[in-house]
Specification:
The complex is a heterodimer of chains A (about 160) and B (about 140). Chain A is α+β, with helices and mostly antiparallel strands and about 160 residues long. Chain A contains five helices and five strands, in the order E-H-H-E-E-H-H-H-E-E. A five-stranded antiparallel β-sheet of chain A has the order 1-2-3-5-4, with helices on one face. In chain A, strand 4 (about 135-145) and strand 5 form a beta hairpin. Chain A starts with a strand and ends in a 6-residue tail after the last strand. Chain B has about 140 residues and is of the alpha/beta class. Chain B is about 35% helix and about 25% strand. Chain B contains three helices and six strands. Chain B has a six-stranded mixed β-sheet with strand order 1-2-3-4-5-6, with helices on one face. In chain B, helix 1 packs parallel to helix 2. Classes of the chains: A alpha+beta (about 160), B alpha/beta (about 140). Chains A and B meet through helix 1, helix 2, helix 4 and helix 5 of A and helix 1, helix 2 and helix 3 of B.
């Protein structure tokens, strides 16, 4: 077993999401010590899980939290409709073209946008991940035999700052 | 029969019990205090926040000067961020009406997630928050 990692494969619902958050908070403190950005790191996982729960076509996901050297890697795989999978990929590709200033401005625009959808989809979570210090955000999307799409989101964040 | 000294008000009360992924929300008439306390990570943030936003808008004329709005949000997802922003936008309407209001944003010791979350909203809306340091896991203090 690799040290400093958490793997979960199975059903994702609101109760499991909140239990994972509690567990992550505890292992983050145990593995990383007390840091100013501990919640920011955990919030990256929250956003990915949130996105997976909101858009998955079944209840199953695969979730991985791993500390590798000086980086935190969070990976979530879920199944989604073609529309949601392609939108996620497009949003992340657009994000990767943005400068930090443009990300901050887009985040501001999204907050000020009066539209407030129950299902999300405006990309605020993706912008939030970038604002929390992620340096790499990859999305892999491919069509499965049953017609649904498999989405794999991988976010890498450096752990070199913010120790108390 | 003696009754408790509740001040006369035509305001509708507000009391929402928190869950593991949604905060407690209340307005205490006697203390003239509104509070939002706890983790906010629900998937349907609009369903949770819109009735609270509506409550503020509905009662904006009745809200008394000196009201304290207190926020203690250890975690919130992006959907909640939008809900909290929209709520504070409606509170800014009360502030702009000239009533004396205090907005307290609680931050656990040097926690960047909590402090930055408040600063972003404060800057965009042009409000003045009082940032209050609280100990780790301070939910029981409210």
């Amino acid at each position: 077993m690799k040290p400093n990692s958490l793997d979960y494969v199975g059903v994702l619902n609101s109760e499991i999401r909140v239990q994972l958050l509690d567990f992550l908070s505890a292992i983050a403190i145990a593995h990383l010590g007390k840091r100013k950005d501990l919640r920011k790191l955990c919030s990256i996982a929250i956003e990915l899980l949130d996105n997976a729960q909101r858009h998955c076509t079944d209840d199953d996901i695969s979730f991985k939290w791993q500390i590798e050297g000086d980086s935190l890697i969070v990976k979530v795989e879920n199944h989604a409709s073609e529309e949601d999978a392609k939108r996620l990929k497009e949003q992340v590709e657009a994000l990767r073209q943005m400068t930090p200033t443009e990300i901050t401005e887009e985040f501001r625009k999204q907050l000020l946008n009066p539209e407030f959808n129950a299902r999300g989809g405006a990309g605020l979570g993706i912008l939030q991940i970038a604002k929390k210090g992620a340096t790499s955000f990859e999305v892999d999307v491919h069509k499965m035999i049953n017609g649904a799409y498999a989405c794999t989101s991988t976010v890498e964040t450096p752990l070199t700052q913010s120790q108390l | 029969m003696n009754s408790l000294p509740v001040e006369e008000t035509s305001m509708q009360g507000l009391s929402i019990e928190g869950t593991r992924n949604s905060p407690s929300v209340f307005y205490n008439v006697n203390e003239n205090k509104f509070a939002l306390i706890g983790v906010s990570c629900m998937t349907d943030a609009r369903g949770f926040y819109q009735p609270i936003i509506d409550w503020v808008k509905l009662n904006s004329n009745e809200i008394k000067s000196g009201i304290v709005f207190e926020f203690y949000l250890p975690y919130f997802n992006s959907g909640s961020n939008k809900g909290i922003f929209r709520l504070l936008e409606s509170i800014s309407g009360v502030v702009k009406s000239g009533k004396e209001c205090k907005i307290i944003w609680c931050v656990e010791e040097e926690d960047e997630f909590m402090s930055e979350g408040g600063e972003v909203i404060e800057n965009i809306l042009g409000l003045k928050f009082e940032f209050k340091e609280v100990p780790f896991d301070a939910k029981h203090l409210f």
